[in-house]
Amino acid sequence: MNILGIETSCDETSVAVVRDGSDVRSSIIASQADLHAKTGGVVPEVASRQHLEQMNAVIAEGLSVAGAAFQDIDAIAVANRPGLLGALLVGVSAAKALAYALRIPLVGVHHIEAHIYANWLVDPRIEFPVVCLVVSGGHTEIFLVRGHGDYQIIGRTRDDAAGEAFDKSARLLGVPYPGGVLIDKMARELHGNTQAVKLPRARLGADSFDFSFSGLKTAVANAVADPANADVAPQDWAASVQEAIVDVLVEKTIRAATANGARRVLLAGGVAANSRLNERMQAACNAAGLPMTAPPPVYCTDNAAMITCAGYYHLLAGRRDTLELDTLSSERLA
Ligand code: ATP
Ligand code: MG
Ligand code: FE
Question: What is the number of the ligand 1 atom nearest to the C-alpha of 242?
Fold first, then answer.
């Protein structure tokens, strides 16, 4: 089954063609990051307009790279929630038009569920139950996944998301938008010292699986203003901030996996692209005797291949949406 997937929930216009849930035949991602760098963040109106301008060309490229024609597509999957409404509407409208014109099934997909399903692109044989750490621009959650579509929330952030912690700290350090990926690169390539700046880890009690990153932001602001840190090199700032975020993510995920009898640990969302998080989580999983899966970076940040993969499992389960399919700015997965 060839599914064409569309993702426009934030600032990536993306189209993918995936066969049978994991054979990615094309994955086109038109990022608006450069456009939004000028404003230091995503301006919703600008994002919607850009999606509109890119949509048809990205669909055409998705088909062309896959060597497919419209007639070769068996179903359409589209991210319809949660996200920026105006941005989602562009993708959903395109998806409806395609499904209607081609007389093929349409299925709406939850963006965060799709981030989780990026793992099934890599390994379609993952065995349940798994614990999945979702770390993205707007979400930080630990899920226990007991089967396809069966999510239980184990922990979540009480304030900022991990991606926000990266991006807001980056801004305080004068690192341009989107900051997370640059912090990772600076810390790694320039061998930043993780101990250079002392920063807090919010554990919220020994038994808690919840996160809190707003205190870190304040601590970074104070540390930047502190004359004692005047000589700290940029890569050492980057490594120290990154370590403070990664420490808590790793510790709580491993504890959640062990406490819930998970057979595997999965990473998902844009921050799952972080090389230090991958390295540290892999080491902790090895020590705990747990296998780990993480999507390659290109399937961690927003992309349509993950939408297509999640859509595949919904279609297998017999789910179909009508042309009434709605867009929602927020909806919890569990
Ligand atoms: P959500 O999925 O919650 O709706 P989003 O779609 O805007 O939010 P994603 O694309 O999943 O977010 O992730 C973007 C986030 O990932 C940004 O905060 C970005 O800084 C962060 N990010 C991307 N790559 C890295 C990296 N290598 N290291 C750390 N953070 C990263
Ligand atoms: Mg983005
Ligand atoms: Fe996302």
Answer: 29
